[in-house]
Please model this.
Amino acid sequence: MKQKKQSALSWEALRKEAVEVAEKEPLLKSLLEQLIIRHDGFAQALTAILANRCLFLHEGVNLHRAIGNALEKDKSIAENAAYDLAVIVEKDPAAGNFLEPLLFYKGYHSLELYRIAHQLWLEGRRHLACYIQSRVSQLYGVDIHPAARIGKGIFIDHATGLVVGETAIVEDNVSFLHGVTLGGTGKETGKRHPTIKKNCLLGANSTVLGNIVVGEGSIIGAGSVVLHAVPPHSLAAGVPAANKGNIRIPKPANSMNQIFDDYMI
Model:
């Protein structure tokens, strides 16, 4: 894993960065003032950014108010969003600062809009939660059911084609590449989607189906189809996926390294 750039998000540093970019790039000045500079804190800026990303085709739906209310009711949403942002900067070599993923990364926007939709779902506002899910799917090609349970420190790299089903559970510090599916088999009721334990890495276009558990600190190889439980700290790869053995690093989600020979015991 690359050297950690910053340990935590600083609102003052982020706002200063936005001011500097606005001075260097006049075409973005109005956008940066609207979304970052004029606000007093991270939660306010996050509200403006998420509403801006989700609203432009349906201005009659006041998502700004709904997002702001959700952040006010559950302080952990903004806390998790700040942590997610710090994780992106730590893990992604393309992220040179906090401002770029906050403004432009659709994986980050999709995840944080899911967090808003999840809060609405828990409040019984299912139709508005599904509206947000639908808008995210239309905008970004990312489909996360608002009832899914997703932890903090999640990194969704590129994001296009990600699908997370209704009863899926994703624990803390899990990294996804694009095209990952956490789906059902079509033959189950109740808990019918996977549980991904903490510190896992799911490779591009991998598919995990059914009420199975991918154990802590495991890797799913790119393009694999997983139909059975994966033991902790192991590599599953192939179609259908098979256990290729144990890996020697405890948190593959942090390294993002998919050269499997570097992992195997």
